[in-house]
Design a protein that fits this description.
Elements: E1 9-10, E2 17-18, H1 21-24, H2 31-42, H3 50-56, H4 61-72, H5 76-94, H6 99-105, H7 111-122, H8 126-133, H9 143-146
Antiparallel strand pairs: 1-2
Helix pairs in contact: 3-4, 5-7, 5-8
Length: 154
């Protein structure tokens, strides 16, 4: 599968954004790409689209696409899709929203497209993911406030 690195490490001495060594080695990443990665990683719901991101860094959409691929080895579209699916997985675990509401919230125009993409990425449907990964709530707090993925529990 396509991997998109969303955690950007910032070099303290020179203020240069760096990607993890596993992706780029010791070279500094173009600051525009680092800014894109920061924006995508910090998006609370759907990450900004390619046109908006291109405007933010002063490039055309095609120029940004070329630069992004050159710098990361991944396409911008794959990175944005991965970020949206990860956000969807989190919402499935932590929110009471329906699959349809989550699909639209993270930028999918079709629930069926979200379900297909989610199944390709996670190996299960969003509904099954939610059912299999949720832990029951054992106190008086509302269910959506205490649902955590199993891996995060002691």
């Amino acid at each position: 599968g396509v991997r998109c690195v969303l955690e950007v490490m910032v070099g303290r001495e020179q203020g240069q954004a760096r990607l993890p060594r596993t992706l780029r080695g010791p070279q500094a990443v173009d600051e525009r790409v680092a800014e894109i990665l920061r924006r995508v990683a910090s998006a609370r719901v759907a990450p900004p689209g390619p046109r908006h991101l291109a405007v933010m860094v002063g490039l055309t959409p095609s120029g940004l696409a070329r630069l992004f691929r050159k710098e990361t080895g991944n396409t911008l579209a794959a990175c944005l899709n991965t970020a949206r699916l990860n956000q969807g997985a989190m919402l499935l675990l932590l929110s009471p929203l329906s699959v349809k509401q989550i699909a639209y919230a993270i930028g999918f125009r079709s629930t069926s497209h979200f379900i297909q993409a989610f199944k390709r990425a996670f190996g299960t449907t969003p509904r099954q993911y939610r059912l299999n990964e949720r832990e029951p709530c054992n106190d008086s707090v509302t269910e959506s406030a205490c649902v955590l993925p199993r891996e995060s529990l002691p």
